[in-house]
Amino acid sequence: DIQMTQSPSSLSASVGDRVTITCQASQDISNYLNWYQQKPGKAPKLLIYDASNLETGVPSRFSGSGSGTDFTFTISSLQPEDIATYYCQQYDNLPSTFGPGTKVDIK
Amino acid sequence: EVQLVESGGGLVQPGRSLRLSCAASGFTFDDYAMHWVRQAPGKGLEWVSGISWNSGSIGYADSVKGRFTISRDNAKNSLYLQMNSLRAEDTALYYCAKDLGIAVAGTYGYWGQGTLVTVSS
After folding, report:
1. B116 Cβ under 8 Å from any chain A Cβ
2. What are B15-43's pLDDT values in tens digits?
3. Which chain B residues are closer than 8 Å to A101 by Cβ?
4. B47 vs chain A: nearest CA distance in angstroms?
5. Which of B44, B109, B111 is the closest to A98 by Cβ?
6. What is the DSSP string of A47-76?
7. pLDDT in tens, A79-102
8. B102 and chain A in contact, CB less than 8 A
9. Inter-chain contact A96–B50, Cβ cutoff 8 Å?
10. Cα gap A51→B22, rounded to integer Å
11. How would DSSP label each residue in B21-77?
């Protein structure tokens, strides 16, 4: 199975800050990488698919980049409503696997 | 509006069975692959199983292979998960998720609110 790692596991930032999360795959997954947001008590929501494509309706402050084994997720200007846990997910091979998540808080 | 409504969860003893259902609406069900993804209390996300649009391709996580069976009824716009030989480690919130496409390995574009399965004596 392909292992996904994320860093940091948690972070605290101020409103308006730029936030960056990294995700690393244990082998080359091309661009078969998605990012999800999960707010407390809610179902996950797709934000970015195929590494860099913004899902319809998702604010443009969210972005993704990378290919191969190293990926980055960025919130350009953190907002209070962005408090959530963010997960990366690879779908290059079954089983699809998720990273352990990054919990984002407001300082 | 896309809606996915899971049902069938509950408290069950180890070794027993449970069948989850997911009722879909607001989209053409047989145009998309569907998945079950679970989340143990306080933990991360784990893909459980997926099924292609026509049931021709199916996949399972190693942790459930041989115990769980995914199926779908396109005429009823419904997805199912038959869970047998349940273990304590199967305790989780089970989400039904709609893929963006027709293939099993894919992207979960929409999620239901989940149904809770608790395996305990």
Report:
1. no
2. 999 999 999 999 999 999 999 999 999 99
3. 44-45
4. 6
5. B44
6. EEETTTEEPTT--TTEEEEEETTEEEEEES
7. 999 999 999 999 998 999 999 999
8. no
9. yes
10. 29
11. EEEEESS-GGGS-EEEEEE-TTS-EEEEEEE-TTSS-EEE-TTTTTTEEEEEETTTT
